[in-house]
Amino acid sequence: MLDHSRLMSKQHSDGGWGLVPIQSRAGRFSSYDVADFEPVTTFDAEWKYTPIKSLGALLDGELDGSRYDFTIDADGVTAEWAARTDARIGSVSTPEERGSANAWTRFQDALVITVTGDEPVRATVARSALGTTARAAHTIIDAKPNSNGIVILDNSGEVHLSENVEISVGDGARLTVVSVQDWAPTGIHLATHFAKIGRDAFLKHVVVSLDGSIVRVNTNAHLVGEGGDVELLGVYFADAGQHFEQQVFIDHDAPHTKSRSSYRGALQGQDARAVWIGDVLIRPSAPGTDSYEENRNLLLTEGTRADSVPNLEIETGDIAGAGHASASGRFDDEQLFYLQSRGMPEEEARRLVVRAFLSAIIQKIGVPEIQERLEAAIEAELRGSAS
């Protein structure tokens, strides 16, 4: 039986049957404690596209929340472990679903990455030995006011992980965060990235999903300061049996804020699956907002599936602009015909079209070594599919 408490809020003042639908994306229940959430079912809006039967302990069980090994290549960026009593933990947002709450409940120490100074700095934090034990993790990226930095989270190897990443972008700061998921083929990874963007601050957040069995990286961006600006980018390439998912929430909560959200993916092989849900909320407190979101998927073979759901909620009549777009489809026959008519073999023409399609996002990342790595990975995927 459907538990209506999952979908409803408090009773309306006029009376009635005791429950009313949640009318706004901002109305979702949130808590740091996993015990406050009901067990996950396919009736839950935030889980209905996810293969929850494969997630096991990440949703319901005990998780190893101890420290893990990592390496950091940093120039002007510090990294340290902090106890969960540290005041910075929980300063950005609160979990809105059970997987995120379970990770929050189980982690012991948080990895804190701090960006300071107005000169550009950068750091690459690499994890490659997390193993197959079900784990919880918590990371904080703290960009101090007027700082300027790039932080790359480079993930590889075996994994069975649920984690939260809090990103605080201080007033006047400029921060780029790139999260690369290049896990082993059996890897399972649930992550929620919470970002808070201050006055006249800018965040570029990039999610790159290349490998793993189930990879779900959700990004929540809260624009709390006037003039805040966020650009959310994502690129992914799903092979047979892989599930890559991204649920994005952009919350405009201050005047004259701006957001751009653009995610693109390619899928090939039986049961390759991609899910993108984009929610944008423009509150009454955010006049002058300028927002646009899009998701596009290229289905390279039979047996693939892409779910793409853009949502736009506007609570003020004073906006600079707001829109969204979504498209999933196969190769453009006219493009292929044009290339073949000029002597290009069909397979090479197909690879060129895919590279051009994904390059629209790759070229925006702004980190040359990540762009080159992505292009090489995509080329390997395409050549492998042709062999």
UniProtKB/TrEMBL annotation:
Residues 133-357 form the SUF system FeS cluster assembly SufBD core domain. GO terms for biological process: iron-sulfur cluster assembly. Signal peptide: none annotated. It comes from the Bacteria. InterPro entries: Fe-S_cluster_assembly_SufBD (IPR055346), SUF_FeS_clus_asmbl_SufBD_core (IPR000825), SUF_FeS_clus_asmbl_SufBD_sf (IPR037284), SUF_FeS_clus_asmbl_SufD (IPR011542). This is Fe-S cluster assembly protein SufD. Belongs to the iron-sulfur cluster assembly SufBD family. The gene is sufD.
